[in-house]
């Protein structure tokens, strides 16, 4: 039977019977669905299937995008190192020629000049690739750029808290520290 709610308090017994006829229960205890409800259920099931399909396609597209970008990143890293190695090949060729000529060389000044030319060529290639050597001597000690090896008494008052000596040169690559300068700091 139906419960008494404020809406159906004033219903006549005939109206209650009609309402019960419209929502008759099947032998399994479920209510029969009206044609409008069946259409609505079919419509909602269709929308659900469509939404699930869109979700699966979107998920698949994202997964493909993630895999593609990971592959492109690996290729970019590989091609970047390839570019650097190709630019270093002339330096290696020059070093091999210098080694060959040093076996027969008698003029030390010529050998030194050759080595200096190869070193300068090497530095120029690295500079073109964005490498920059840090200038540290006499500069204030900076934790973001320097690694203090030791502290010594400052030779003069103006060197207190500044770099007195550079043990190992520091380098920046495109403005980012790739090796900290190892320095001696004056106290």
Explain the overall architecture.
This protein has helices at residues 13-22, 35-104, 108-128; strands spanning 131-133, 146-152, 163-168, 171-173, 176-179, 181-186. The N and C termini lie far apart (96 Å). It has two domains: 34-129, GrpE nucleotide exchange factor, coiled-coil domain (Hemagglutinin Ectodomain, Chain B, Alpha-Beta Complex); 131-187, Nucleotide Exchange Factor Grpe, Chain A, domain 2. The mean pLDDT is 85. It has a three-stranded antiparallel β-sheet. Strands 2-6-3 form a three-stranded mixed β-sheet, with no helix packed on it. The chain has 187 residues and is α+β, with helices and mostly antiparallel strands. It has three helices and six strands, in the order αααββββββ.
Fold topology:
Layout lengths: L12 H10 L12 H70 L3 H21 L2 E3 L12 E7 L10 E6 L2 E3 L2 E4 L1 E6 L1
Parallel strand pairs: 2-6
Antiparallel strand pairs: 1-4, 3-6, 4-5
Helix pairs in contact: 2-3
Approximate strand percentage: 15-25%
**What profile does the largest beta sheet have?**
3 strands, antiparallel
Please tell me the overall pLDDT. 85
- Please give the CATH architecture of the largest domain: Alpha-Beta Complex
Determine the CATH superfamily of the largest domain: GrpE nucleotide exchange factor, coiled-coil domain
Task: Report the CATH C-level class of the largest domain.
Answer: Alpha Beta
Unreliable stretches covering 5 or more consecutive residues: none
**What percentage of residues falls in helices of 4 or more residues?**
40-55%
Q: In which order are the strands of the major sheet placed? A: 1-4-5
From the spread of the alpha carbons, the general shape counts as: elongated
Counted up, domains total: 2
Put simply, the count of helices is 3
CATH topology of the largest domain: Hemagglutinin Ectodomain, Chain B
> Which structural class fits the helix and strand makeup?
alpha+beta
**Rg on CA atoms, Å:** 41 Å
The H/E string reads: HHHEEEEEE
Give the strand tally: 6
Gap between N and C termini = 96 Å
């Amino acid at each position: 039977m139906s419960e008494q709610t404020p809406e159906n308090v004033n219903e006549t017994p005939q109206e209650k019977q009609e309402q019960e006829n419209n929502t008759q229960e099947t032998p399994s205890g479920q209510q029969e669905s009206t044609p409008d409800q069946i259409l609505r259920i079919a419509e909602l099931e269709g929308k659900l299937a469509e939404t699930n399909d869109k979700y699966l396609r979107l998920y698949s597209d994202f997964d493909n995008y993630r895999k593609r970008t990971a592959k492109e990143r690996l290729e970019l890293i590989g091609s970047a190192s390839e570019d650097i190695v190709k630019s270093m090949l002339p330096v290696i060729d020059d070093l091999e020629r210098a080694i060959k000529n040093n076996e027969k060389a008698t003029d030390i000044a010529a050998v030194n000049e050759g080595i200096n030319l190869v070193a300068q060529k090497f530095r120029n290639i690295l500079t073109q690739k964005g490498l920059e050597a840090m200038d540290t001597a006499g500069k204030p000690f900076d934790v973001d750029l320097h690694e203090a090896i030791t502290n010594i008494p400052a030779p003069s008052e103006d060197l207190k808290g500044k770099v007195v000596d550079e043990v190992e040169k520091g380098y920046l690559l495109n403005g980012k520290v790739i090796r900290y300068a190892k320095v001696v700091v004056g106290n």
